[in-house]
Amino acid sequence: MSQKFQEIINSERPVLIDFFATWCQPCKVQSSVLNSVKENLGEGARIVKVDVDQYPAIAAQYGVRGVPTLAVFKNGELLWKESGVHDVNTLTHLLKQYM
Q1: Of 30, 31, 43, 48, which sits most exposed with the smallest number of CB within 10 A?
Q2: pLDDT grade, residue 94 (50/70/90)?
Q3: pTM for the complete prediction?
């Protein structure tokens, strides 16, 4: 996964990574928010979910201490990272800045 992860974040279009866990209730809320964000942005940005229990090394590499944690990458560079649940408008606006 780490090689694949590197390919994903090296994209020229912004990539929002959702670090989540299956047992996390706020993560489920965030997931439905991200579906709406995806509808708003279409192909302009990519949204990828990473299960921290399946890929703890990737979560540790990016300092994920709690879930959900969202991170935006473009051309391999971490542009933004924050924990907690975020709303559709905030995330849509954030990603549009990097498109």
Answers
A1: 43
A2: very high
A3: 0.95
